[in-house]
Amino acid sequence: MFKDAPLEPDESAILVEPFRQELNDLLQRNATQRVELLIVPDIAEWCAARYGTCDGNPCAMAIRDGESGAWGVLLRGHIGAATVRSCIDRVALFGGHEDVDVYERLSSPRAFLFHLVLHELAHLENNWRQDREDDCDAWAFERLAGPC
Ligand SMILES: [Zn+2]
């Protein structure tokens, strides 16, 4: 169901920086090797300055250093309300976690960000590419124990 009301001003936008420590702890707790959390203003720009391009301009992305094998999770520092909503819609739309009430589960900024970084970690831990989004979401929900 699509609402045709105009988007509210940025009331549910998320500022990532205040969650840095918690997100870092969450990553290290769930990862089998060190993961660097990088909070950047713009992921496409960050990529362009290093590797060339990335696919669109996502709010989060898993990266692997070709030479050292080091892992990283990139997060956009400010995630606008519309992006938050479309992310949650995408998670809800695809399967693999039918026992989860996605909207309820991801309703707080903390829960949203926890799920987001765990999703990116799923790509790294399992070597899953972009065609495994559902599996990444399910993997993240399994590790998102307890209320956030
Ligand atoms: Zn993904």
Determine the structural class based on helices, strands and strand pairing.
alpha+beta
Q: Any idea what the radius of gyration is?
A: 15 Å
Number of strands: 5
Give the DSSP E fraction (strand runs of 2 or more residues): 5-15%
Mean pLDDT: 88
Describe the SSE topology:
Layout: E1 14-15, H1 20-30, E2 35-40, H2 43-48, E3 60-64, E4 71-76, E5 78-79, H3 81-93, H4 102-105, H5 109-126, H6 133-143
Parallel strand pairs: 2-4
Antiparallel strand pairs: 1-5, 3-4
Bound molecules: zinc ion.
Could you explain the architecture of this structure?
The chain is built from 6 helices and 5 strands, in the order E-H-E-H-E-E-E-H-H-H-H. It has a 3-stranded mixed beta sheet, with helices on one face. Strands 1-5 form a two-stranded antiparallel ribbon. It is α+β, with helices and mostly antiparallel strands. The two termini are 27 Å apart. The chain has one domain (14-143). Helix content is 43%, strand content 14%. It is globular, with a radius of gyration of 15 Å. Bound molecules: zinc ion. Residues 119, 123, 133, 136 line the site of zinc ion. The site of zinc ion (ZN) has 4 residues, from helix 5 and helix 6.
